[in-house]
Amino acid sequence: MNPTRLAGRRRALVLLGGAPLLLAGCGFKLRGQRPLPFESIYLGMSAYSELAAAIRREIRANGGTRIVDKPEDAQVRLEVQADIKDKLILALNTQGRVREYQLRQRFIFRLVSKSGQEITPSNEILLRRDLAFDDTQLLAKQQEETLLYRDMQNDLVQQLMRRLAATKMPEAPPAEASPAPASKP
């Protein structure tokens, strides 16, 4: 083997080996799981929806927070105010046929404490994806649309989890001290 090629490989190995050390030295670390700031949550959604199942999976994977079946058993309630999927026409071709769609998903929610106090006011997550359309490939475009909606749902769940993890729980009011019983002399 040529000595200059061997030296070049050694330099490349040193650089590749040194890169993780440099990244670790600058404080870089991968984003890990962020625990939710509450012990239990009630999801105000249909238990059978795909979105609710995805949110449940993510909360369970995050660990620490229980999902309860009754709102009165939960420390907080996730109230879904809107979950809307849209499909808008963006462009038409010269024959007046659709050339491009925009897929949208709008999710509006708020977080409420057990006592009814609003912890997080109405929050909106709006996702958009563009879909080029060709009516000669109808089946393929329907599958692509399904995949885009699934991708949007995964993105929505991740954004929701980040917002829930960033929630600041209100301070509990101090418990009133009961008066000490009077002692008899």
Concise structural overview:
The protein is α/β, with parallel strands linked by helices. The chain has helices spanning 3-25, 50-62, 138-165, and strands at 40-44, 66-67, 76-92, 98-113, 118-132.
Tell me about this structure.
With 185 residues, this protein is of the alpha/beta class. The chain is 35% helix and 30% strand. It is built from three helices and five strands; from the N terminus they run αβαββββα. The chain has helices at residues 3-25, 50-62, 138-165, and strands at residues 40-44, 66-67, 76-92, 98-113, 118-132. The longest helix is centred in the C-terminal third of the chain and has 28 residues, at 138-165. The mean pLDDT is 86.
Question: How are the SSEs ordered, and which strands pair?
Answer:
Layout: H1 3-25, E1 40-44, H2 50-62, E2 66-67, E3 76-92, E4 98-113, E5 118-132, H3 138-165
Parallel strand pairs: 1-2, 1-3
Antiparallel strand pairs: 3-4, 4-5
> Could you tell me how far the N terminus lies from the C terminus, measured between alpha carbons in angstroms?
102 Å
Q: What's the shape?
A: flat
- Name the poorly predicted regions: none
Instruction: Please identify the structural class as seen in this structure.
Output: alpha/beta
Q: Could you give a short account of the major beta sheet? A: 5 strands, mixed
Overall average residue pLDDT: 86
Strand content of the residues, in percent?
25-35%
Number of strands: 5
